């Protein structure tokens, strides 16, 4: 694909850039990212579109000249929940309720061809050079002991991936990490993502999620070391490594 000069850049991170083309969004990976990851994100999104979850429609995967491989999707006009929360902190809890209800709604869907959460976490734990074989074994055993579930899990569910559409509906973007698996694991990941920013917001989220989903907090907490290992393996932010390692350590392996 060729990107027009009128595009605007929404984000630039180490391994990608996201552009707004007016009515479409293009997410361009850098050369270091495996091409298969880009296709996987597009395939996840196609499966999520087909499952009937409100999400941007996937349009195209191709190489951007002089840049990298990219996924093009429809643009959902609106504002993210993260922006709303930042704009008006007094309404944080109201937005959090919408956020939690949406996550629980997504967990009600099935997409039987999506990658399996268990396989993804096992792969990520095995790829971690920062922890020793004994700790990796403990984490894999813990993963193996978890209840087998097959619900749609976003895998990176945080307020910046929820768009409040101009039509008043909520849409979810960024399905790169979607799997079928345990909702409690997905909630543990969201809790972790909040905790990396704000501990108080993380606690408010966890309490509300467990209450609304009728899930014991202990079950979500049991996933925390696994999701911390998985986030560490993604290597999104070097400065968070010690925090994530401490979450892996905190486990009580009785
Ligand atoms: N289809 C879309 N319509 C409207 N806005 C979008 C759309 N896709 C992405 N965005 C905006 O671009 C931002 C970044 O996109 P996205 O969340 O996919 O990338 P990312 O968070 O950098 O990716 P990753 O979590 O995979 O590292 C979103 O937070 C949202 O504001
Ligand atoms: Mg995102």
UniProtKB/TrEMBL annotation:
Domain Aminoglycoside phosphotransferase positions: 22-212
InterPro entries in UniProt: AGP_Transferase, Aminoglycoside_PTrfase, Kinase-like_dom_sf
Designated name of the protein: Aminoglycoside phosphotransferase domain-containing protein
Annotated TM spans: none
């Amino acid at each position: 694909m060729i990107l027009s000069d009128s595009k605007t850049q929404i984000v630039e991170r180490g391994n990608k850039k996201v552009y707004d083309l007016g009515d479409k969004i293009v997410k361009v990976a850098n050369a270091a990212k495996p091409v298969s990851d880009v296709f996987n994100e597009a395939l996840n999104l196609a499966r999520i579109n087909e499952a009937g979850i409100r999400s941007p429609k996937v349009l195209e995967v191709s190489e951007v000249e002089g840049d990298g491989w990219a996924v093009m999707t429809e643009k959902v006009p609106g504002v993210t929940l993260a922006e709303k929360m930042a704009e008006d902190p007094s309404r944080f809890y109201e937005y959090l309720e919408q956020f939690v209800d949406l996550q629980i709604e997504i967990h009600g869907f099935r997409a039987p061809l999506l990658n399996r959460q268990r396989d993804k976490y096992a792969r990520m734990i095995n790829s971690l050079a920062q922890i020793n074989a004994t700790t990796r074994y403990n984490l894999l055993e813990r993963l193996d002991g978890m209840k087998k579930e097959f619900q749609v899990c976003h895998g990176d569910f945080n307020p910046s991936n929820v768009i409040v559409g101009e039509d008043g509906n909520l849409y979810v973007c960024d399905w790169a990490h979607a799997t079928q698996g345990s909702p409690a694991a997905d909630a543990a990941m969201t809790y972790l993502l909040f905790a990396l920013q704000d501990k108080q917001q993380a606690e408010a989220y966890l309490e509300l999620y467990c209450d609304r989903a009728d899930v014991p907090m202990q079950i979500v907490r049991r996933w925390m070391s696994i999701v911390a290992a998985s986030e560490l393996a993604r290597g999104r932010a070097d400065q968070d490594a010690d925090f994530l390692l401490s979450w892996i350590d905190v486990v009580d392996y009785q």
